[in-house]
């Protein structure tokens, strides 16, 4: 559910498995019919059961794809200061969860894991809720090992938070760099995986130029 005052944007299309075509069903029917000739039950019954099973399996796969977002908990919304003048932007974040490493030798348990920030820079409009399916897919595939954060553009979400002020592209770029700089000041060894979409890709390149030593992947 979107927070009050957020503009609604349709989420990116998620491909789902298509149901088998009529020709595929007929082929399955004929194959099973031939294989069932030697059975006491009628061949058409075997064929119908096989087709029904195929339809059921494909439908289950389709429902799993459609319902994939419900398997991931919602992210934490936060407001972050991104400029010296106290400009704020909304971010959605999945924080890493502590994992019990039962099979890890005791001597390795004390060595700290490399901290990674997966930072998503949106396009235009810069509403982080538009990228929620992407963030949830990252969580599904890679777990909660690293922080995953989508940082909105100032003024694109709840503009009254910044007194309805308009921001230039350069200001948006500098604000992302300001946020990253603050994070690196707190954690100098933090590794950055930056994902940019549309104009966010341009901002991502700027981040890479400013902080090359901390970039793990773009």
From TrEMBL:
Keywords: Hydrolase, Lipid droplet. It comes from the Eukaryota. It is found in: Lipid droplet. GO terms for molecular function: lipase activity. GO terms for biological process: lipid storage. InterPro entries: AB_hydrolase_fold, LDAH. One of its GO terms (cellular component) is lipid droplet. Gene3D superfamilies: alpha/beta hydrolase. Belongs to the AB hydrolase superfamily. LDAH family. This is Lipid droplet-associated hydrolase.
